[in-house]
């Protein structure tokens, strides 16, 4: 899920088309964006947070707060690790 910190919806769309393709995204300026930043304690940009969910979203576990660095260092292997951890606890990933 992409959460923008761009200055305008136009900047967000330009950045997404340039760098993120057809990712799901929170509407620019929506309250949900701030709620997600606060909930997952996002302090720097860009950030990648991996989250496992269970029970229709009622229970969750943050698998990584430093996903961007992990992906940079380990590539696709880290995605497989996150999926295995999420499946091991009976959930999926956000």
Descriptive report:
The protein has 94 residues and is an alpha+beta fold. The chain has two domains: 1-43, no CATH class; 48-94, no CATH class. Helices cover 43% and strands 14% of the residues. It contains four helices and three strands. The chain has helices at 9-19, 31-39, 67-74, 77-88; strands spanning 50-54, 59-64, 92-93. A three-stranded antiparallel beta sheet has the order 2-1-3, with helices on one face. A hairpin with a 4-residue loop joins strand 1 and strand 2. The relative contact order is 0.14. The mean pLDDT is 90.
Tell me the number of structural domains. Answer: 2
Strand order of the largest sheet: 2-1-3
**Fraction of residues in β-strands:** 5-15%
Number of strands: 3
Query: Which descriptor suits the 3D outline?
Result: globular
Fraction of residues in H or I helices = 40-55%
How far the N terminus sits from the C terminus, by CA atoms, comes to 8 Å
């Amino acid at each position: 899920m992409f959460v923008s910190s761009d200055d305008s919806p136009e900047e967000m769309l330009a950045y997404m088309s340039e760098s993120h393709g057809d990712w799901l995204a929170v509407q620019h300026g929506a309250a949900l964006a701030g709620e997600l930043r606060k909930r997952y304690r996002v302090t720097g940009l860009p950030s990648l947070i991996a989250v496992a969910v269970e029970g229709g979203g009622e229970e969750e576990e943050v698998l990584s707060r430093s996903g961007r660095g992990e992906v940079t260092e380990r590539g696709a292997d880290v995605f497989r690790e996150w999926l295995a951890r999420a499946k091991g606890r009976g959930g999926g990933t956000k």
